[in-house]
What we know:
Layout: E1 2-8, H1 12-23, E2 28-32, H2 37-40, H3 56-69, E3 73-76, E4 79-84, E5 89-93, E6 98-106, E7 110-111, E8 128-129, H4 132-135, E9 144-148, H5 150-160, E10 167-171, H6 179-187, E11 191-193, E12 197-203, E13 206-212, E14 217-219, E15 222-226, E16 231-232, H7 235-240, E17 264-266, H8 277-299
Parallel strand pairs: 1-2, 1-6, 2-3, 6-17, 8-15, 9-10, 9-15, 10-11
Antiparallel strand pairs: 4-5, 5-6, 7-16, 12-13, 13-14
Amino acid sequence: MRYDTVIVGGGIAGLQAAIQLGRYQYKVLVIDDGDGRSAICHNYHNILGYPNGISGPELLRLGREQAGVLGVEFVEDTAVSVEKRESDFVIETKEGQRYECRRLLLATGVMDRIPPWPELRPCLGNSVYVCPDCDGYEISGKKTIVLGSGNPGANMARILSFWSKDIIFVNHEGREVDSDVRRRLDEKGIRYVEELIDRILADDTAFQGVLLKSGEKVEAERGFVAFGGNEVKSQLAEGLGVDLHTNKHILADPRTKMTNIEHVWAAGDILAHSEQVTIAMGDGSQAGIWIHKSLVKEDKGE
């Protein structure tokens, strides 16, 4: 089946683009595997209109419902390859399906490296966070543990000292921290602990601290995860020859969101900019607008 646009990734950016394109009455398909950042965040606090927060799953549900009313189609699958032909693209999926489209939007996102402590997942977005620009405010004046590794964890602890003066960095993996970074931690009075975390202490969604392998219990009211090595899901883009930043994020025109490959767009956290829900929404809308412009131009034979 041939679509006007296939969107790979049904997170915030992908859904916003789907809504925009659906309102232009195009035939749109969203391919999504359900494994995105927004699917695991239980509360976003910095979105206009939601002063008490809204969960990622709820925001996704509302977005799918809104796009569905506009005729957007969804399939739960994983795109594994994309082939560019003369006038269209062919996407193959993990389930062996093939989809053709005139335009392609990559909204594949980023996934944080989060250790599989079972007590941690319910806390994400409620009392444990990953993005200081999104949620640094949530730790204001509260004792906070940065669960991390090496320089990424140490730098997160340093950044968070803007909101709280009671920060502890637990270097769970024991990776090296540069001497100048360590000095800055000391200057800010941040306690440094280099020890394995045995388990997370939590009461349902309320983070309460960590139990170290030594048996020491380190209590806190909030937590931040900063292990580095996040997965930037730009493999499909790279296979198409899309230009990538050195950190594997996609480079795209800041106005149109189109990549260096004609008729391939990108939106959301996969781009090289601040990784925010509200920015992802803007990216999705902007990409949808410019995809529409290109289709109108093509249909007019211009």
